[in-house]
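Try this one yourself first.
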């Protein structure tokens, strides 16, 4: 916007009010719909966005924990069923298979034990970390 003053010099005139462009994505912050976005409404919008982010973060954390828990259970069940599988193959007369599975067993058990230990270790660690965070 430009107008000429009494000396004929063009001057830019500031609009007295700040106006949002048409279809502005920030128009939604005007919660009471009076066309004015107050500092209060701005703060509210910020707070809402912060809470939503927090919620997404918690949900992701929750999913991750479920996944790890399922994996730990799967590993434990594998450990429990391992001897049964050896027995079954033996009963079915698959002596070679039974022998092969038995040969793998030491490696398998050590690996699974490591996995489960890591799981419990991580659990204990995060629990301690949460406690320390609460104390702050
Ligand atoms: Ca408003």
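Now uncover the answer:
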């Amino acid at each position: 916007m430009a107008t000429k003053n009494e000396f004929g010099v063009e001057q830019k005139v500031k609009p007295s009010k700040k106006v949002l462009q048409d279809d502005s994505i920030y128009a939604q912050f005007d919660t009471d719909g009076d066309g004015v976005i107050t500092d209060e409404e701005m703060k509210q919008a910020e707070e809402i966005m912060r809470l939503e982010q927090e919620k997404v973060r918690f949900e992701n954390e929750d999913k991750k924990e479920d996944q790890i828990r399922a994996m730990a259970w799967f590993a434990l069940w594998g450990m429990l069923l391992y001897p049964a599988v050896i027995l079954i193959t033996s009963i079915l007369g698959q002596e070679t298979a039974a022998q092969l599975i038995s040969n793998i067993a030491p490696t398998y058990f050590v690996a699974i034990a490591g996995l489960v230990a890591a799981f419990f270790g991580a659990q204990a660690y995060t629990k301690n970390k949460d406690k320390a965070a609460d104390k702050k």
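Discussion: Helices lie at 39-91, 95-135. The pocket of calcium ion is lined by residues 30, 32, 34, 36-38, 41 (CB under 6 Å).
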